[in-house]
Amino acid sequence: MAHDSVKKVILAYSGGLDTSVMLHWMKDTYNCEVVGYCADVGQKDELTGLDEKAKKTGASKMYIEDLREEFVRDYVFFAIQANAKYEDLYLMGTSLARPLIAKRHIEIAIAEGADAVAHGATGKGNDQVRFELTYYALKPDIKVIAPWRHWEFSSRSDLLDYCKNNNLPVVASHQKPYSMDRNVMHISFEGGVLEDPWNEPPDDLYVLVNPLEKTPDQAQYLEIDFEKGVPVAVDGKAMGPFELLDHLNDVAGEHGVGRIDIVENRFVGMKSRGVYETPGATVLMSAHRALESITMDREVMRLRDSLNTRISEMIYYGFWFSPEFDVIRAMVTESQKHVTGTTRVKLYKGNCIVVGRKSPFSLYSEEFATFEKDSVYDQRDAEGFIKLNSLRLRLNSMMQQK
């Protein structure tokens, strides 16, 4: 990219060492204005003092956008409706946040008349793909700067030396033995001591979810209300999306629910070991699935479930704003029109156990299911049903015998 073609850049800024160096490095390299942007998706105290820090580092302006409600409502709850789990385990807390963060990034770039956007993702991971696919889908002519793929630095020491040489106000803190990414849906832990998949995660790697040894000895019951597949209340108390998920994180985390340790396949081709804490969404996923079991038509459910792997891959890979995902989104929404009712779950020692479900749209009927009454089901009809379904099996056997 020609340096003189960039006059203003919107940088996804976290306030950490990497993005602080990026801010100064881009101003120096491109002789351009840099505007900082940070999305609040529920990372809590990490946003404290960010505006002041960005401006001290050289930003002309700093956007801190509260996207918590939109994140839970439009992204997390969609994943719950779709029963989306990457490789059958990962609920994709990071994957779901990236398209929203990138969407707002582009909106700010357009409002500011910026030439380019920049992010701090490395050239090894999934996030660079998720960010940039969204950028190009929403603004095809945007210029993208990814410093980790281009600059001369290769280590944390290089970055600290740069800060020292340029008098940047960055405090070198003790580096954790792993990296952590947080939002209201989950906390992910990767790298460092976790890179060896044989190593047990260290004891201090618990934030949202209690270790089982510290969970209550008494089980707790919750009742979760859904409307068209969307969770709307817990124990009869109506809550907004963010409040509801935040509340379930506290309750489920106390009981040790929602922690997984996996090795996953990154989109770029390598395997990666990660530990994830996703307490609230784990409860919602179980409760939602239980309610679907009595409200969804069998073939509709099977059609949706047949696409689960594809849906999860599209989210994980970063194709949220693709044409095919627009179609998928409409299909999932349509499948949820009768998923209204209540699920009761029991939380105990790391387990979320479904113990009840009810709905005004329930397709489950004791009268149909019982073997004691024949007024709605004539058992003699089963004979013809079996013979018709066995026809191809009989023909195949007769052919082989012949």
Polypeptide structure, described:
Helix content is 42%, strand content 19%. By secondary structure, it is α/β, with parallel strands linked by helices. A five-stranded parallel sheet has the order 3-2-1-4-5, sandwiched between helices. A five-stranded antiparallel sheet has the order 10-9-8-13-14, covered by helices on one side. Strands 6-7-12-11 form a four-stranded antiparallel sheet, with no helix packed on it. β11 and β12 (271-277) form a beta hairpin. It starts with 7 loop residues before the first strand and ends with a helix.
Extract low-pLDDT stretches: none
Reading off the top of the CATH hierarchy, the class of the largest domain is best stated as Alpha Beta
DSSP strand tally: 14
Q: How helical, in percent, are the residues? A: 40-55%
Rg from alpha-carbon coordinates: 25 Å
> What is the count of distinct domains?
3
Largest beta sheet: strand ordering: 3-2-1-4-5
Summarize model confidence as the mean pLDDT: 93
CATH architecture of the largest domain: 3-Layer(aba) Sandwich
End-to-end Cα distance: 73 Å
Keywords:
402 residues, alpha/beta, 42% helix, five-stranded parallel sheet, Rossmann fold, 13 helices, Argininosuccinate synthetase, chain A, domain 2, 3 domains, single chain, five-stranded antiparallel sheet
Task: Please sum up the structure shown.
This protein has 402 residues and is of the alpha/beta class.
